[in-house]
Amino acid sequence: MAESAFMSTPPSFSQLNRESEAKPRISVGILTYNSERTLHQCLSAIFSQGYGPDEIEVLVSDAGSKDRTVEIAAQFGVQVFSDPGRSRGKGRNFFVQTAKSEILVMVDSDEILPPDWLSTVERLLAASDVAEATGPYYTPEPNLGLVGKVIYNLTSGWEFSSKKGRRRADWP
Q: Are 91 and 58 contacting, i.e. CB atoms less than 8 angstroms apart?
């Protein structure tokens, strides 16, 4: 089965000419499909992390949403690549090939990052033996009150992989 066409053809590594472009500190990839209910909160949290427009790039790979997902992403000025039927795996591979930063963060469209989440990722990955980090986030669940958020935050923490194996770190 042939892969669907993009709205714009994805750039190859040579087309990106990475050396001549200013590199963002962090690239954030978001996979979407009919995500209008959660995408605004997700993007708002990303753009509230304290990074300037030249320090972060956000790439949205949409799998053919039939709701307002693409419109909401466009309101934030992020790069949107539409490919109806694209699988999660192909979407993630696309981000790895397209991202300009050395730090690539995958975020689901229903995740709301806590303040300083991205800077914590940068700090953890700056350690020479850390290759991967995962951390806590919120999802916009109905009827999730303050107590639910506190319990979730207290039971969540940063985890990262290194040469010494998988470790857990306290939330900063």
A: no
Structure tokens belonging to residue 152: 């979730």
Q: Tell me the CATH number for domain 24-169.
A: 3.90.550.10
Burial class (CB in 10 A: 0-12, 13-18, 19+), 23: middle
Start-to-end CA distance of the chain, whole Å, equals: 47
Question: What's the rounded Cα separation, in Å, for the pair 70 and 62?
Answer: 7
CA distance 71 to 1: 29
pLDDT in tens, 58-76: 999 999 999 999 999 999 9
If you search the block for the tokens 């850390």, which residue do you land on? 130
- Using DSSP bridges, classify how beta strands 165-169 and 158-162 pair: parallel, antiparallel or unpaired: antiparallel
Instruction: Report how far residue 93's alpha carbon sits from residue 155's, in angstroms, rounded to the nearest whole number.
Output: 31
- Would the pTM count as exceeding 0.90? no
Is residue 83 within 8 A of residue 64, CB to CB? The reply is yes
CA distance 76 to 33: 17
**For the segment 95-134, what is each residue's pLDDT rounded down to a tens digit?**
999 999 988 999 999 899 988 899 988 888 887 677 777 7
Q: Which two tokens stand for residue 128?
A: 């020479």
